[in-house]
Amino acid sequence: MLKLINTDFFKNASLLFSGSLLAQIIGFGALYFLGRIYAPEDFGEVETIMKLAGVFIAIGGLRYEMAIVVEEKTSQAEELLRLSLFLNFGISTLIFCIILFFKNTIGIFFKLNDPNLLFGLPVIVWITSSTESIILWYNRVKKFKKISVNRVLFSSSGTLYKLLHPFTLVSGNGLFIGQILAQFLALLHMVYKLPVQLLKTTHQNLKAVLKTYRSFAVFSSPAAILNILATSMPVFVISAFDGQEATGYFGNAYKLTYLPMSMLSLAIGQVFFERIARIRNQKENASKMAHQLVNTLFLIGIIPVIVMLVCGDQIAPLILGDQWEETGVFIQIMILFYFTMFLTSSFSSAFETYQKLKFQLGYNLIFLICTFGALYLGYREGGNTRAALTWFSLVGIVLRLSILNYFFVLFGKNLIAKTIFAILITGVLSYLGFTLKNVMIP
């Protein structure tokens, strides 16, 4: 029987997660002060722009970078890295031109206090897309320590500036400036001693890999846009309907809940991507590894999730300050959806590994339509952000659990029985948690 714990799988994942954990500790510790230094509107502006950037980052290299890990030939993988970096620059330039002409229109739509912040959007897209492409290269060659250190550098440098910004002579949103600074330093760290000569290529070589992996651009890029739009939809809709204060509340709810979970999910997912790409044709081993992994993720996440579900309205003000009570309510509404995202994200590379890019595109389109409809109807019928997020969360949970079971069909064995059992366990623990809370707090 395949035992992940006795292989280098969890050793590599633990190495990545150790960096993520340290980065999260730094970020969490800083939130106690940042929540008292900056207003919800400041957080809201950064959240809106970063979500906008995320849409373009997802397709910065037209998804050719995703083939870096699965390509068997090192020379071809190098060409894929070069191609993705060139595409990143081209798309970032295009975004700058759009901002130049439509800055005010976009700013009014999202109710931004300072539309000039949008000029940071193409910079963020270029830096982050390039960094992510190079990280995939290091993932291919199993340089997980480098990736881990990079995350700590990103978190510590950005956090330090955000804390010190009020004491500097620099004007503007310190949260936003700190974000760009951290991403720039992270890119420099990734490029340093990169064993690939980025400009040593030819037009013919780039054209060859462009053609070979065009399905990534044709199917995976639209799917990636749809996926990021769907997961970012609450920020966009809240900004447009309720303004930057409510967006700030939601953004910090995300930071206190899914962001920590996503770090672990990303660390495991990167190692899983490399491993499943090698054994994808060995159904028995792939299925065993995937089932062991989902069991581990569920056991890791269930207790913290229940605690946030029951006590989120008390935890958020305790961490961030009294002005963040609404963040706690948003946490309670969204936490079960974030839990399903946590369980799903580690396996999302199955679309690329098993060449199910058309299916991915269709699923992400359905996810986007359904979640946007849930948010819109929530505002229209409920009239407030709480109602909108409740509908979004319910629809999202059903769709995420469905795609998780599809992944396991690809691996060789479905997850239906475990899914039902997990729902029952979560329901029982939630009931017990709320009962205990009512007893302790009459």
What does this protein structure show overall?
By secondary structure, the chain is mainly α. It has one domain. It is built from 17 helices and no strands. α12 (283-320) packs parallel to α17 (416-440). The radius of gyration is 21 Å and the shape is globular. The protein starts with 7 loop residues before the first helix and ends with a helix. The mean pLDDT is 85.
Number of domains: 1
| SS strand fraction | under 5%
Shape: globular
Proportion of residues in helical segments? over 70%
How many β strands by DSSP? 0
Structural category? mainly alpha
Poorly predicted runs of 5 or more residues: none
Rg is 21 Å
- Please give the alpha-carbon distance between the first and last residues: 50 Å
Keywords for this entry:
442 residues; mainly alpha; 82% helix; globular
